[in-house]
Amino acid sequence: MLAKKNVTLEKSNMKVNTIIGTGAVFIGNLTVKDTIRIDGEVTGDVKTDAVLILGSSGKIIGDVEADTIFAGGYIKGDLKAQNKVEASSTAQIYGDITTKVIVIDENAVFQGKCDMNQQTAKEQTTENAN
Predict the structure, then answer these.
(1) What's the mean pLDDT in 102-120?
(2) CA-CA distance, 84 to 71, in Å (whole number)?
(3) Which of 12, 28, 58, 75 is most buried, taking the most CB atoms under 10 A from its CB?
(4) Taking the domains of the chain in order of start, what are their residue ranges?
(5) By C-alpha distance, which of 122, 121, 65, 71 is closest to 98?
(6) pLDDT tens, residue by residue, 97-106
(7) Terminus-to-terminus CA distance in the chain, angstroms?
(8) Torsion of CA 91, 101, 17, 93, to 10 degrees
């Protein structure tokens, strides 16, 4: 079993409990506890305590919050991931990203700011030194 911080989409055996399929349109805020995959369109904020997978045909207009985000489609909104954001070569992200780890493949589009919690890390280092 892979450690939570080292989850990669290709090697994981995660169980997807919620799917918004290709051609489906969801309007409103969406909150789930487990892993979700979106291949359709969501207009509204999306939040999960687990992993969010956005397929290459997927589209989200709204903010996204998850433990880990694998983006292959279009997102217009801010992303907040507790552990990792991974944007594949087909991803288009227009918004700010807050995460500990970020991976952006070649040809992915990212327009926004990225906060990798560096200020928090500096504060912890200062506290440990005292």
Answers:
(1) 88
(2) 11
(3) 75
(4) 4-129
(5) 65
(6) 999 999 999 9
(7) 38
(8) -20
